[in-house]
Amino acid sequence: MTLKVDLRKTLAAAGRHFTLEANFTSDSQRIVIYGESGAGKSMLLKALAGLLTPDQGRIELAGRCLYGHAERINLAPQQRQLAYLFQDYALFPHLNVRQNIAFGLQGGWRNPPRDVAHETVRHWLDRLELDGVAGQMPDQLSGGQRQRVALARALAAAPRALLLDEPFAALDPALRQRMRAELDKLQRQLGIPMLLITHDKDDVAAFGDHLLRMQQGRLIDTRKTVQGVMHER
Ligand SMILES: Nc1ncnc2c1ncn2[C@@H]1O[C@H](COP(=O)(O)OP(=O)(O)OP(=O)(O)O)[C@@H](O)[C@H]1O
């Protein structure tokens, strides 16, 4: 699945401007965008997801135009069929695990019953080993379980690709390693393309098949090796 991105967006606040410029093409199933805090990574992810409209440019995924300034195309987030995994997972606190996953189903289940027994929900509960906590609320889960619920909710919508914003930042270091290994395995098994933004070199090492560098709003496709980043100070 080829992703083609060529976009520009300027944001202004309190007399300060920030311009995002990104231009790259990738056939990789595992793209990592690496950069410091404030470099513009979240802006790029939001633009891909349809949560931020660029000023100009074009975004194409698998031959389908998601955004095209010249063509006046700007698909709504749900039309893009991309799953967005937020840094803090953004689970619904008043819904149990089963209901949170049901919320992700295509067509949107706005008010899923507490004992929702949809086949897809059952599948992801089983696949992500959440059966035992299906009736629990998000604040009754461990960090790793919360992340699995967020992934299950994202995958229940059968997305074309996964967008991940610092997926391990909210976890303690020991759990981080374990969840990286879990995501690694899951991605390989499902064969779903993913794009991950991070400032953590360990994420680069684990997922950076195609590594891009974000610096002060500019995306640099250095094709720099993962080893190169790992040896940076
Ligand atoms: N609504 C806005 N108006 C003006 N500037 C903004 C706005 N939102 C973000 N910015 C600026 O854009 C820049 C990039 O922000 P962004 O959140 O994309 O960075 P990031 O690389 O994802 O950082 P982090 O890793 O800390 O999340 C920052 O300098 C930020 O201050």
Q: Overview of this structure, please?
A:
The protein is 31% helix and 27% strand. With 233 residues, it is α/β, with parallel strands linked by helices. The strands form two sheets. A six-stranded mixed β-sheet has the order 7-8-9-3-10-11, with helices on both faces. Strands 2-1-4-5-6 form a five-stranded antiparallel β-sheet, covered by helices on one side. The chain has helices at residues 41-49, 77-80, 97-103, 119-127, 143-156, 173-190, 201-207, 226-230; strands at residues 3-13, 16-26, 30-35, 56-61, 64-68, 73-74, 82-85, 161-165, 194-198, 210-215, 218-220. The protein has eight helices and eleven strands. The protein has two domains: 1-81 and 161-233, P-loop containing nucleotide triphosphate hydrolases (Rossmann fold), CATH 3.40.50; 94-159. The model has no long low-confidence stretch (mean pLDDT 90). Bound molecules: adenosine-5'-triphosphate. Residues 11-13, 18, 35, 37-43, 199 line the site of adenosine-5'-triphosphate. Adenosine-5'-triphosphate is lined by residues 11-13, 18, 35, 37-43, 199. InterPro entries: AAA+_ATPase, ABC_SmlMolc_Importer, ABC_transporter-like_ATP-bd, ABC_transporter-like_CS, P-loop_NTPase, Sigma_54_int_dom_ATP-bd_1. It comes from Duganella qianjiadongensis. Residues 2-232 form the ABC transporter domain. Pfam families: ABC_tran. Keywords: ATP-binding, Cell membrane, Membrane, Nucleotide-binding, Transport.
Put the structure in a nutshell.
This protein has 233 residues and is an alpha/beta fold. The chain contains eight helices and eleven strands. The protein has a six-stranded mixed sheet, with helices on both faces. The protein has a five-stranded antiparallel sheet with strand order 2-1-4-5-6, with helices on one face.
